[in-house]
Write a structure and sequence with these properties.
This protein has helices at about 10-20, 35-45, 60-70, 85-95, 105-120, 155-165, 175-180, 190-200, and strands at about 1-5, 25-30, 45-50, 75-80, 100, 130, 135, 140-145, 150, 170, 210-215, 215-220. It is α/β, with parallel strands linked by helices and about 220 residues long. The chain has a five-stranded parallel sheet with strand order 2-1-3-4-5, sandwiched between helices. A four-stranded antiparallel sheet has the order 6-7-8-9, covered by helices on one side. Helix 2 (about 35-45) runs parallel beside helix 3 and helix 6 (about 155-165) crosses helix 8 (about 190-200). The longest helix has 15 residues, at about 105-120.
Length: about 220
Amino acid sequence: MKILVIEDEENIQKLLYLNLTHEKFEVVQSFDGRDGLEKARTHVPDLIILDINLPSIDGIQVCKNLKQNERTRHIPVIMLSVRKEEIDRILGFEIGADDYVTKPFSPRELLLRVKAVLKRGNGEKQPFCTVGDVFLDESSFEVTAAGKPVILTPKEFYLLKYLMRNKGRVVSRDALLTHIWGYTTDVETRTIDAHVKSLRKKIISDTIAIKTVVGMGYKLTENV
C-alpha cells in the first residue's frame, strides 16, 4: 500500500519513512502543501499523513482541497500538529480528516492508527487504481497516462486493471484467460499477446512497464 507523507520537518519525514517502509508500506514524500496536493493527484495513495503547518499551503487547506477533488476525496487523511487545543481537533474532523495525532508522537502509536484507518477503509474497495502516472477509474471507465486520456477497448481496460491491481507480480496467461476472457476455448495465447502489445502502444508513460516473463506470463512494474 502507498502512503503519502506531507510534512516539512526533515527529521519527522525520516522517522516516518523508516517506520513505514519497515512495515512494507510504499512511501511518497512531500515537504510543502502545494507539492503535496500535486503528488496526491498523481500517485493517488491509499492514505495521507498530513501536517497542519506547511509552507505554501497549510494542511487545513490541503485537506479541504483533497476532499473537494473527485480523484482524491476518498483518500483517508491522518493530520499531524503540535496544537493540542480541542478546537484544532474538531476543525480537523470537520474538514474530512479521519484521525488526528499531536506532536511529539510515538511511531508505534502512529503505525497503529495508520493500520486502523486503512482497515476501516477496506470494507469498500475504491474504484481508483494508480501505478506511476497511470490512473484508472473503474466507475467512469477512464484511463490517463501522464495526465493525458487513453482510449482503450473493454478487454484492454480490464486487462490493464488486472495488471495494475497485481503490480509487481507475474500474472500467468491462464489467470488472464480466466479473469478477462472467462476461459473461453476460442481464446488463444496470440490474442492475449496482441492485447498486451496494443496496451504498450497506447500507454505512453515513462513510469510503468508491462514486461514479458518468458514461459510464465506478464508483469506490470513501476519505474522508480
